[in-house]
Amino acid sequence: MEDLSRAAGITKSSFYHHVSGKEELLRAALERSLDGLFAILDERHATSGRPVDRLRYIVRRQVEVLQAELPYVTLLLRVRGNTETERWALERRRSFDAAIAELVREAAGAGQVRADVDPAVAAKLLSGTVNSIVEWYRPGRPGADALPEDVVRTVFEGVLARD
């Protein structure tokens, strides 16, 4: 907390005037990333249209949120459930994955994804693919603007050449 107050240019006691402690800061940071993800689910292209198109849109937007909120998303991906706040964040992440699994189910029912794909596994793989980006993505590098579309194309079309 002392480092944070110093970086903010205020005293430690002034810092505590605005926040109660580390747990409140953690929750605020986690809320920022989670709110960004859940907001996607309410966007027009995520709520209307063919299920597979909605799924593509959500994956693209997940990458965009990750890029825009990289430190906060990285923090979210590092929580392990050691505190009440971390458990809350993990539960919200599970809710997001459940919403994606439901959309995969809809897409399978519409014949837009393979029927033999387990929706829960697909949702975890989609999120895992996007989440792995925090390990190697660096803002400002060439290709950063194309990353969301590159991820969508690779996930939904694969890496194998077409015959």
TrEMBL record:
Keyword Transcription regulation: yes
Residue ranges of every copy of the HTH tetR-type domain listed in the record: 1-37
InterPro entries listed in its UniProt record: Homeodomain-like_sf, HTH-type_TetR-like_transc_reg, HTH_TetR, KstR2_TetR_C, Tet_transcr_reg_TetR-rel_C_sf
An example molecular function term from Gene Ontology annotations: transcription cis-regulatory region binding
Keywords: DNA-binding, Transcription, Transcription regulation
Stated name of the protein: HTH tetR-type domain-containing protein
